[in-house]
Design a protein that fits this description.
A hairpin with a 5-residue loop joins strand 8 and strand 9. The protein is globular. The chain contains 18 helices and 13 strands. The longest helix has 23 residues. Helices cover 45% and strands 17% of the residues. Helix 10 packs across helix 14 and helix 12 crosses helix 13.
């Protein structure tokens, strides 16, 4: 089993909050992580996709009230939205009896239903954590190429060969389209949504043009926007927002779009091997998305991500804004001899970041001049990971 970077933070939240929601796409390892976190404490696990376990909750007040002395893990909790008012009452009852933490661990494959329900009924009683597929800290640097090609879903990364890995991801995509996505929204033709998802993969790291996407699949803009909203809510696609602060420049206001897992990008584009990837037009965009997802997966809670672009050509691939307001400017290059372009210097003059970094696929950190450092992806992941560990 991979040692998940989120485990210490999950354990800490269970010690301080009555309910914790662990969100992430299917097959990202939520159940394995939850059971690992629960090893040291009395717990019970209920899979709400199981008829037997759903039957236990036919009268949830009675069943759950009998288990207030345990951590109750509810998997795929979006299937039982009626539980949230019950959980609120049980949490408040337990608080009056002096038990204020570690009551419920809720696992969900999407943010939309879970957040809508809990915003109404569990405010102040729940903490949210997001489990992404595996990142570089969890796999080790020796697996970086495999992680980039195959993506971070454990079954895909651990497959015995590239062909088997690709088949797993293709089946994963088909299952999402035919079984999972219809649970969360209006019925969408699987072929239409697959074409839409594939177009997003072709457009990896590009500016989001909803009107163009809508024309390409023959739907109206509102429908295309709903497809993007759904894929984002399912934690499969990321909209990276543009920097919005007033810097006296004409800023680009359109978000950038990424299919979050690089392995899914390659599966949607039928890229099986690293050799095929290295000759494909998506190469640079795929590497950019891979770097961004790894950095955000390792970053501490509260760090916000943006990109910066002005009408005059100033540009930064990724801005990390820390809770205190400090900004790190990060440029991403797929080259062993990275060079900083004029647009990055201009953006740094506008933003005055406290750190200026260029992430590249090498193994050494070295200066590039103008207080800019070239740094391997693993090195920055490690630095961010250390800062995200719970304080002792």
């Amino acid at each position: 089993m991979f040692q998940r970077h989120l485990l210490p933070l999950l354990a800490e939240e269970l010690q301080h909050m009555p309910a914790v929601a662990l969100l992430g796409p299917r097959q990202s390892g939520k159940t394995t992580l939850a059971l690992e976190a629960a090893k040291a404490i009395p717990s019970i696990y209920l899979d709400l996709e199981s008829e037997r376990d759903r039957a236990k909750l036919a009268q949830p007040e009675l069943y759950l009230a009998d288990h207030l002395d345990k951590l109750v893990i509810l998997d795929e909790v979006h299937r039982a939205p009626h539980l949230f008012p019950v959980l609120r009452g049980l949490i408040d009852h337990a608080r009056r009896d002096g038990k204020r933490a570690g009551l419920y661990l809720l696992l969900g494959s999407a943010s939309l239903d879970l957040l809508q329900q809990s915003d109404e009924t569990l405010a102040g009683r729940i903490a949210y954590l997001e489990l992404s597929p595996l990142n570089l800290l969890e796999t080790g640097e020796e697996q970086m190429d495999a992680l980039w090609l195959r993506g971070g879903f454990p079954e895909s990364l651990s497959a015995p060969g590239d062909a088997r890995s690709l088949r797993w991801r293709q089946n994963f995509i088909r299952t999402y389209l035919e079984r999972d996505i219809p649970q969360f929204g209006p019925r969408i033709a699987a072929d239409t949504l697959r074409r839409f998802w594939t177009m997003l993969a072709h457009h990896q790291s590009g500016m989001l043009n909803v009107a163009q996407l809508a024309r390409n699949i023959g739907v109206d803009i509102k429908t295309a926007q709903s497809y993007i909203d759904l894929l984002c809510a399912l934690l499969l696609v990321r909209r990276l927002p543009p920097w919005h602060a007033n810097v006296g420049k004409r800023l680009v206001k359109t978000p950038k779009i990424y299919v979050r897992d690089s392995g899914l990008v390659h599966a949607l584009l039928d890229i099986e091997t690293k050799e095929t990837l290295l000759s494909h037009m998506v190469l640079g965009a795929s590497w950019e998305g891979f770097v961004i997802e790894n950095l955000l997966s390792c970053a501490p809670p509260g760090v916000q991500a943006w990109f910066y672009r002005t009408g005059g050509g100033a540009e930064v691939d990724l801005l990390l804004q820390w809770p205190g307001g400090d900004i790190w400017a990060i440029e991403i290059k797929r080259s062993l001899t990275p060079k900083v372009e004029r647009g990055f210097h201009a953006a740094c003059d506008d933003l005055l970041p406290v750190r200026k970094l260029v992430i590249y696929p090498g193994i050494e950190t070295f200066p590039l001049g103008h207080n800019i450092q070239a740094m391997p992806l693993m090195s920055l992941c490690q630095e961010l990971g250390l800062q995200s560990l719970p304080s002792q």
